[in-house]
Every structure is written in C-alpha cells, then in structure tokens.
Amino acid sequence: MNADPAVPAAATSRIILLAIWAFVLCGRVWSAEVAAAPVLTRIAEIRALSRAEAQKGVPVKVRGVVTLRDMTSTLPEWLVLDDGAQGIWAHMMVARQKGVWVGNWAELKQITPGDVLEMEGVSHPGSYAPLIMPSRVVRVGREPLPPARKIPMDRLVSGAEDCQRVELAGVIQSVTTPPRNIERSGFLLNTQGQTLRVTVEDWPDMNAAQLIDAEVRVRGVFTATSNYRSELVALRVHIMGADGCEVLRPPPVDPFEGRRVSLDRLRPFSPDGPDAHRCVTQGTVTFCAPGDFFFVQDGKAAVRVHAPGTVVKVGERVEIAGFVDMSRMVASLTGAVVRTLGDVPVPEAAATTAQYVLSPEKSLTTQRGMEFDLDGHLLKLKGTLRGMEIENDGHSAQLQIEMKDANTTAHLVGLNSADVATVSSWVVGSAIEITGVCEVVFAMKAPATIPAASSFRMWLRSPTDVRILQTPPWWTPQRLMAALVVSGLALLLVFGWSFTLHRTLGKRTAMLEETMRHHRNAELEFESARQERRRLAVDLHDGVQQMITGVSYRLDAGIGQLERNPSEAQAQLSAARRALVSTKNGLRDCLLGLRQVEEGPGDFAALLRHSVETNAHWPPGVVTVETAGETFALSRDVMGGLLMLVQEGVGNALRHGAAPHVDLRLHFAAEGLELVVKDDGKGFNPQSAPGTRDGHYGLEGMRQRMRWLGGTIEVTSRPGEGTRVCVRLPADRARTVEPAPRLPNTSPNSNTTIDA
Q: What's the rounded Cα separation, in Å, for the pair 47 and 159?
C-alpha cells in the first residue's frame, strides 16, 4: 500500500502553525508583563533590582546629568547618568546588540559631561550592577556635575559606590600613556593604604614625569571591575581628563631625595601609617632580567625590584628610588629609578635545601644567621633534573628540578645560541647543583596569622649556574624492557629470514641453471647472426645509401629549377632534403657501429675509444672516454646495443646541442655497469621535448633499447646547462643476456626522424 504524501505534509503544516501561534502567544504574554510592570523613574529603584528582575527588561524613564562618557571608541558606547542621588551605566552598544537602541549615533557623539538627558529604555543586569539599555535619549540642558563625595575605603571595597562620583587623595605611583584609540591612559593611585587604577578618557598631554610621586586629589566616577561571575575583583576610578586630577604637591625634582631606608625595613611600623611616596635604598645586584626586573641583596636582606626599561648587571652596587609593593605579601619595589654606584663583589651563595626555603622559621638558627626567609637570596640547591624546555624563541629556558623535600622550577633568561646548545646537552635524570636567586611564593594558610611560604622558583644567571654532579646510568628499566622486546623481535626476524633464505636459494639455483642455458643459446645465435649483419652492412652501404644520396642530388636540382617560387613547395622539398640527409647520416652511424662491434676490440672501453677514433664525422678531440672500477667482459649483444646508444647520444649532442665537448664515462662495479654521456651544449627541456607523436623517435628509441637490454636510462637536461644521459645495466644482464629482439624499421639509432 502506498502512503499519501499529502498526509505528512498537512501534519507538518499544522505543527509549524502551532509553533508560530505559541511563539506569538509567549511574546504577547512577555509584552503584557513588561507593559504591566511600572516604569521606574529613579536610578535608585533600577539599582535595587535583582539580576533576575533586571533581566526581564523593566521599562525605565529617568532624568539626570552626564558625569562620564566614552571617548575612545568611534561610536559612544556608554555613558554614566546621575540623577542627583545615584549614578548608573547607560550602555548604548548593549542596547544596540539587543535591538533596543534605534536612536541617532551622531546626536550621541555631541553629548558631553554636564549635559542633562531624559532617557527611556529597559533594565539590564549588567556585568556587575544593573544598567540601562536606552531606546531614546533627549538632551534637555546643562547642569553642574554632582559634588564628589569622600568615601571611606571599606565602602569602596564593598563595591556599593559603583557609578557614583567620589573624591580620593593619594600618591601617583605609575603612569600609562599608550597611543590614543588603542587603550585608555591612566595611573595607579595609592590612597588610604590601597592601590587602585584611575582611567583617563581624554588627557592627550598627560606627562608622567610631572605626576609620578605627586600627591593628587582625584574627582571622578568610581566603577567596580568584575569577573565573568559578576564578582568584584578590582577597584577603578574614571576621570574625563586633567580637570579630574588636582596636583596638591608636585613630585620631587630628584627622585633620590625621598626618605632613606635600609633594604630590610622597606615597610616598617609607623603611627602615621605607611608612606606612599618613593623610598631610597641600596643593594648589590645578584640577578637581572634585562629591562624588566632584578634582585638586590644587602647583608641579610634581599628584595625584588621592578624597573621596566632599566638594565643593570650582576655585581653592581645600585641606589634605588621606588615605591613599596606588598602584592607578593613580602615587600618589593616597583616603579623604580636606579643609578649605579660602582662594581662590588657578589654575595656568596648559601648552600641550603628546599626544606629551609619553605620553612623560614628554621633559618633563624640554622642558616648561617639569615633572618626570617630566603626570598631574594643567592642560594645553592641540589636536585635531579626532571625536564627542560626552551622558550621564547630560544631566549629563555625552564628547568624542572626534583628535590628531596619539594619540586621547583629554575628559569634562565637572556640566552644566546651557545647557551641554548649547552642547555640542550644536559641529560634528563642528571643529579645537578644550581646557583641562583630564590623567589618565594607566600600565601595565607589557616590557622596561621602570617603568610607562609607555599612554593618557590629559582632565577639562574647563566648556564654556568648549573653544575652536573652525575649523569644518569644508561641502563634504566625502560631501556632494559625495550632491549628485551627488540631482542625478541630480532630472533623472530632471524628465523623468518633463515626460512626465506632457504627458499630463495632454491629459486636462485634454478634461475642460474636457466641463465646458463640461455647463455649457451645466445653464443650460438650470435655466431649465426654475425654473417647476416655483415651482409646487411654491405647491402645498406652499396644500395640504400647510394640511392638516398642520388635522391638528395635530384631534390637539389629540382629546388634550383623552380621559377615561380611556390613557397609551400620549397618548404616541403627543403624538409624532404633535410630528412634524407639525416637518414644518410644515421645510416652511416649505424653501419659504422655494426662494423665496429664485429671488427673492434672485445673490451668495451677499448671499443668505445676505437669508435671515437674511427668516426670521421665526429670532430677530433671533442669526445673523450673515461673508465673507473675493475672491468669485466660484456657480451657482444650488450656491447652492440650500448655502442648504438652512445652513437645516438653523441650525435644528438653534436647536431642538436652544438656541444663543444662530450664526455663518455664508464663505471664498472660489482652490482653492474654505469655509462654516462654528458655534454656541455645548449640543453633542452625534457618535459616539453618533441616525442613520437611529433615524429621524433630518438629518446624513445634509446629507452626502448635499454628495456631490451634489461637496464635503465635517465635523461636530465636544462636549457643552457647541457644534457646528461645515464644508463645502468645490472651485472648479470651485462655479462649474459637473452638475444635482443630484432629492431623495427623505426630504428632507435636512426637520426632521420630526430632531424626531420
């Protein structure tokens, strides 16, 4: 029974209509919910929405003054609106992506801080706090910006003041001024013992030298930076430009005028709290990552110094003016300015173990009087090299080291090619001793009340800081197992090879007997064919050659008697004459070769030399013969075939290649015979050379002859670089071959078709 195709089609149509109806119904329900929701007119009401409520797109209509606006994008993607009580993000780009914003971008570009806007749109949960997706924005006037409020740090850390105008005072510790329209400029501000980022929208002439270490007052919009889970991770303040940053006290003219401290008292207790300005200290450089950071040590204290663009060398005594950084839970210096005081001896590296590095309290009594911890100190540690990796295009390397109490990573930076070669020569598994600067990672571990060392890494100055104590033994369990597997496979192969050899020996014995039989038959046939070849040579010389010569004369006479000069006739007659001349030359070569095989020496090398000397149409001294290896006798059939091939190759080199010199090279070897015909003529392109379809049989004839002889031929040539013909014949085919089949009328030795 055949099903009616209209039935499933009708059912499908009903399903599609039902889906559309359900979609429309849901849309109406959602629209009804949105329409039924009250319009929020105060920013505080929008910010009070939960994320789930804000996700529904609650309608909003607010009025406020612009306190901040995006200035780095081609289109104004966002702005901050403040209604006098609170501020909120209004994100046009998000609204555009959601299909809410359909307004005029050109009008938005004219908006500046201080403009009063009436804004309609819907709520959105935002990345941290709720925001507005505008659908309509109208500029209705201008008003002064709301006053900035002084907010305690604990309130800022809570993130509750997001989008509110705040006032902060502090010390600028670094300035970033990237190219415009790539990334916003800004600076790090240390305020109330905390460091936060101040982002600048439009301050083209911001000067880092006039701001770093200056005391400033910042008035701007506080924002909270969040992660993908909408959790607060960092604090930030946005200002529009120079108007948002008031310099209270400029930085000192000389950065080294700051307070001087010892290297072990960078952040001591003070009743007045920590000083946010630069401090000045001294130390001896023990390690340097050029242009990035370095370590200094002074007595029992050692510190990491971050100084981008500064290059120092190990062994220099330096004076440092920098800001104290506690982000590693141990004091280091950042934003540093450095000057060199001279070269001094490098502190001696202390021999220790991973146990003492990770247990600072033990170093108080056992580690040569060192205090508290070994962070930043020059140390010697022993371990086992478990891995290494060349990184950064060969400019750095990372070593994995296993120790008794812990594992660590050692870093080498600033490598050259010689260093990379040295590192690559190290054998994994070797016992080593490393000398370098130790950088400890500290973390809070309950129930401890102070940070504890959780791990560490080593910074090595050069490959000489690694001393190989002992290379691993060659025999390992893995290698022993591999050797056993290989030995077993080898035994299996020997048994298989022995069985195969036995069978092959039987086949080769039968083949040898058959070859000997063919050899005897070939000798008998050669004797009977000798007389026939002599008769053929005489007949060709006395009959066919003379006839072709006569035809050539008649064609010359006919061309000379043409009166009306028919161009087509002349072309055809000229071609015929060239073909006949080439035929005559080819036949002459063939006759000469046949006679030389019969009457010449039995040694093939001597036969070639004899052929070169007796060929009158080969210019004297142009063709040379060279031999190599221990010669062996060739059968007459092989010598005849190879001699014909040589004559063909030399003739082509002289006639077509205009070669001033042709080399014939014979190489006798145990595996067979190699014959090379090489000239320094014009050469040609073998891929585009005329073939048998074009009436040229020379190359194909040479290939066919080598197939009869059981060998191979290789022709290589390039225009302007001469031609090389290389033939190879196995030893068993060269010494004894089956009788070659009689050549067809289009002889491969005939140059007639090549010249035609």
A: 13
